[in-house]
Amino acid sequence: DIKKPILALAPMEDVTDFVFRELISDIAKPDVLFTEFTNVDGLFSNGKDQVIKRLKFSSNQHPIVAQIWGSTPKNYFESAKLIYDMGFDGIDINMGCPVRAVIKQRSGAALIKYKELAKEIIKAAKEGAGKLPVSVKTRIGLNKIETNEWVSFLLNQNIDVLTIHGRTAKDKSKVPANWDEIKKAV
């Protein structure tokens, strides 16, 4: 229900924490804010007390979307229920992180390669999310451009929003964004 164009504070690791979002909300609030990406597997581990701090927000930060990542569908379901109960306005699944440690866990951009797992994750998140919209942030490919196949696959999962980072995971952010591939996705 946000007017277009949508101005968003993108999810940025080690940047969009509670304090940063609060500051931005006071100075020049965008239409929607995203948390740093939060590991769903960590939310249900011995380290949960540290991980859940990433999901702290104030009423000043609405609308706010929790960005999550991981590789266990059950934990996506449980995390989505938790995020709904916490009062978030949406859930965003990170399927675009190019960091090697994340990819090794079959998470982030690795899910481009593991479509069945990606499908299970989206389904689990949607089932746990209640009425919250579920979106996906991704890239145009893992090691090569796969826009048509990957974006078509994601859109067939009936997600509410798709955000495209116009580079492959291999490219990270070292090359200019490929706007032609973004145009294809649109």
From TrEMBL:
Could you tell me the keywords of this UniProt record? Flavoprotein, FMN, Oxidoreductase, tRNA processing
Cofactors demanded by this protein: FMN
- Name-wise, this protein is tRNA-dihydrouridine synthase family protein
Q: Which PANTHER family match?
A: DUS-LIKE FMN-BINDING DOMAIN-CONTAINING PROTEIN (PTHR11082:SF25), TRNA-DIHYDROURIDINE SYNTHASE (PTHR11082)
Q: Where is each DUS-like FMN-binding domain found?
A: 9-184
GO molecular function terms listed in the Swiss-Prot or TrEMBL record = flavin adenine dinucleotide binding; tRNA dihydrouridine synthase activity
Which Pfam family, any one of them, does this sequence belong to?
A: Dus
Q: Does the keyword Aminoacyl-tRNA synthetase apply?
A: no
- Oxidoreductase as a keyword of this entry, yes or no, is yes
Q: InterPro entries annotated for this entry? A: Aldolase_TIM, DUS-like_FMN-bd, tRNA_hU_synthase_CS
Give the range the annotation lists for the signal sequence. Answer: none
Q: Give the domain of life.
A: Bacteria
